[in-house]
Amino acid sequence: MIDKTAYNESRDESKDPMAMLEDGLVICKFGRFHMRLLFTSMAAVFASTMVTTTSSYILPMAECDLNMSIMDKGLLNAMPFFGQVGATFFTGFLVDAFGRRIFLIGGNAAIFICNLVEGSSQNFWMLIIMKLIEGIALSVSFSAVASMISEFVHKNVRDRILLLYCSFMSLSLIVAAVMSWAVLPQPWHIVLIPAYFELRVWNFYLYICSVWSLVAAILYYTIPESPKYLLSHGQEREALEVLKNVYAENTGNPKESFPVTSLGASGTFKLTKDMSIKKQITHALIAVKDLFRPPLFCRLLLFSSLTFVCLLAYSALRLWYPQLSTIIENYKKDHGETARFCIMMDNYRHHLDENFNVSLPNNLTDVCVPHLSGSETYINGIILGLFSMVFIGLSGYLVDFFGQKILMFVYLVLCALCSGSLYWTNSSIQIALLVSATCALMQSALSLQQNILIRVFPTTIRTLALSIIIMMGRTGSLLGNILFPIMLQLGCMGPFLSLSVITLCVAGLVYFLPDPNKESNGAGDK
């Protein structure tokens, strides 16, 4: 046990309060509390993945139930991102102004309610509207998850913990595929009100996927507010109390034995707790102006551009992958073998046009027959998640040798080569490996970028900066999911070669990213 008197006598009184808080986090160690926080964050990441991914798994099954054309499918995939684009900037500002915890709880609770209503959808437009609202709810919570983790772990393990947090996304892809495989093949169909209210298997699937947001909301209720947020808003006593509780939970020692009795923040930060909401917003706006001055503004533009292009390519391919895999699987089932990738895509477009025509009201003789997903589609989803986990784990090892910027550049170049090679593939195994590698490399590059950006923006505007960058990324995701089916209708080569070219172009921007190793005790720690 550390001697409290000796510690307080030896500490430097002129030390920055945030640096003293970092010392306090080191004393708290990494333990039970952080495991609880990581599990809570994992549930939140799973919930966010379900918001954006469930649509891609129900597309083949619901295309006849909801009379969807290929453009309708693109719109459904894009709708959660549209909701996030509209709300992320404001929610990021509010999270920095009023705290992380309240929005993590409220955002996940709102996602759960939206999931329940979405699961009851009976037509395409009801599903579209609920996906839009769900995207808005996701924007409330998503940007605060990474900030919460980074502000609770000490600097000695922060990079490794953030890398572990990034692996949750890969794990969530595996969980989404497994849940889809377990539920969607079931013959569930309940008619409550004939011709008005029916629950098909994809409705039950959406209900079941809502469990993650409920778990996240409940668990975040047990997590205290970020000590760095509290300290940066003048609440030193509350921040110190949080540290004491973390110390007691991690070490098993009584919290009274925590050696830090003061963070030396008297007069350093303005107390916002007792301010009116109007004054708190005004205070936050004053802090925001620093984000739009050099060098932070230049960093914001650079990170936003990178994220926009990367998510434009990554989200479009990842969210259309279950549909593409189903197309290949059904082509092989109908013809006994696979063909060139683009031949299979053209065959599906012809089939979908026929289904859309027979679903019109004046056609009473033909029946819409969907191309359902088989086990291969779900296995490919699991492979994609496993690839992502392997590459992120490999990044944790290679980053010590090559650095984050060089590794990001290599990943993006390899990603461009893999996506461009899709045009020439002619077997389902080749397609599965190339798509999985493309998505895994892109996600690993984005994970490395997130580790950099969290360290180069100050605490008071970190979530706002992250929210703006996420907003630009979601704009890329929205645009990618709308453009992908349009380009696919015009020709098969377009989408994949375009993804390759823009990824190569953006790889050059990595050179201009700030060096995170030069930012220690700098902006990112304040």
From TrEMBL:
Transmembrane segments: 37-58, 78-95, 102-118, 124-149, 161-184, 204-223, 296-317, 378-399, 406-425, 431-452, 464-487, 493-513
Annotated Major facilitator superfamily (MFS) profile domain residues: 37-518
InterPro entries associated with the record: MFS, MFS_dom, MFS_sugar_transport-like, MFS_trans_sf, Sugar_transporter_CS
Cellular localisation: Membrane
Domain of life where this protein originates: Eukaryota
Membrane topology: Multi-pass membrane protein
A Pfam family reported for this protein in Swiss-Prot or TrEMBL: Sugar_tr
Keywords: Membrane, Transmembrane, Transmembrane helix, Transport
Signal sequence interval, chain numbering: none
The family this protein is said to belong to: Belongs to the major facilitator superfamily.
Protein name: Major facilitator superfamily (MFS) profile domain-containing protein
Species whose genome carries this gene: Iphiclides podalirius
